[in-house]
Specification:
single chain; alpha/beta; 18% strand; binds 5'-O-[(R)-(carboxyoxy)(hydroxy)phosphoryl]adenosine; binds zinc ion
């Protein structure tokens, strides 16, 4: 009888995410319906340091997590007892930060007698695409663009079993979001830099400043963004030395055009290699307005279905963790209470 009722209302997963500087909890029904998505951002705390300070992040997660979980249940109109499982980011991330979410999830799972589901953060980002595109079915290609990761992933399944997701290429140096943040710092913009460059580039002139597109060896699906970053720094220094004014908007536009050209070219190569007709773009940088517009045009031309989550599901959130946890729950892939936190973790 309980199972029948569960199927009627859809499995309810509580997701918890604390891998970096967002303390987040969400309730997702049936893998797609986001009943709540609460995010307490620590940006104001970290921006005076120009980046995330791991120890401070952990301490803030600790003081915030219970309130955030309570708020997510209240907003969803769901009691703790009604939750079917607790899904939580187990890594990759700042290990001290991940531990706070993990300890919270373990305590809840134990007290409620519900399954605990450890979720790979990158899998979470990929599953964010499913929240708003329930029709999206593997196989598809995922371009993961975040502050810590940049990769092209061949997604053959969602259950969480190993071997379902294959990394076809990834960055050899900086992640794309990291490059955005560093270039923003060079230009004296605030943290996080991605949204600042996104906004500033809109006022820049296309083609006024051109940076090299680093494509690596022919056929390689790997990425490299440190060259574009250094190229930007060299350009800024040469303008300063020559006593010429810094046209920050043009520099932001030039940097962004170079980055987007590379992302677009590599995504197209990945589509050609796999023969897939669907591309999902996920992770914080997928919130970038120019990337979204460019990829919409490019995929339209090729007749490729493009799935980019709304911005709130691109940057770190717990709905994506609950969403990914749902598929693991269906596959019976749950964890025991001795689950570890991982600073690095492959897909
Ligand atoms: O996925 P995410 O929230 O955290 C990680 O898992 O890393 O990504 C954060 C990254 C930051 O580098 C941030 O600058 C970038 O995503 N980002 C953006 C935009 N919004 C966030 N980059 C470019 N344009 C944006 N609108
Ligand atoms: Zn992330």
């Amino acid at each position: 009888m309980t199972t029948g009722r569960k199927l009627d209302r859809g499995v309810l997963i509580l997701g918890i995410e604390t891998s970096c500087d967002e303390t987040a909890a969400a309730v997702v029904q049936g893998g797609h319906k986001v009943l709540s998505n609460v995010i307490a951002s620590q940006i104001d705390v970290h921006k005076i340091f120009g980046g995330v300070v791991p120890e401070i992040a952990s301490r803030h997660h600790l003081t915030t997590i219970n309130k955030v979980v309570e708020a997510s249940l209240e907003e969803a109109g769901v009691s703790m007892q009604e939750i079917d499982a607790v899904a939580v980011t187990k890594g990759p991330g700042l290990v001290g930060a991940v531990l706070i979410g993990l300890a919270t999830a373990k305590a809840m799972a134990f007290a409620l007698g519900k399954p605990l589901i450890g979720v790979n953060h990158i899998r979470g980002h990929i599953c964010a695409a499913l929240l708003e595109y329930p029709e999206l079915k593997p196989p598809f290609l995922a371009l993961v663009v975040s502050g810590g990761h940049t990769s092209l992933v061949d997604v053959c399944g969602l259950s969480g079993k190993s071997g379902e997701m294959t990394v076809l290429g990834s960055t050899r140096d900086d992640a794309v979001g990291e490059a955005y943040d560093k270039v923003a710092r060079m230009l004296g913009l605030g943290y996080p830099g991605g949204p600042q460059i996104d906004a500033l580039a809109k006022q820049g002139k296309e083609g006024a400043v051109v940076f090299k597109r680093v494509m690596l060896e022919e056929g390689s699906l790997d990425f490299s963004f440190s060259g574009i970053k250094t190229g930007t720094l060299n350009y800024i220094n040469s303008m300063k030395q020559a006593g010429r004014p810094l046209r920050k908007a043009d520099i932001a536009a030039g940097f962004q055009e170079a980055v987007i050209d590379v992302l677009s070219a590599k995504a197209k190569m990945g589509l050609a290699l796999t023969g897939y007709r669907t591309l999902a773009i996920v992770g914080g940088v997928a919130a970038n307005s120019a990337l979204r517009e460019r990829m919409r045009k490019d995929t339209e031309q090729l007749g490729i279905k493009l799935c980019i989550p709304s911005s709130v599901f691109c940057t770190d959130n717990a709905a994506m963790v609950a969403g990914a946890g749902y598929y693991q729950y269906l596959a019976g892939l749950t964890d025991t209470l001795d689950l570890d936190a991982f600073a690095s973790l492959s897909l």
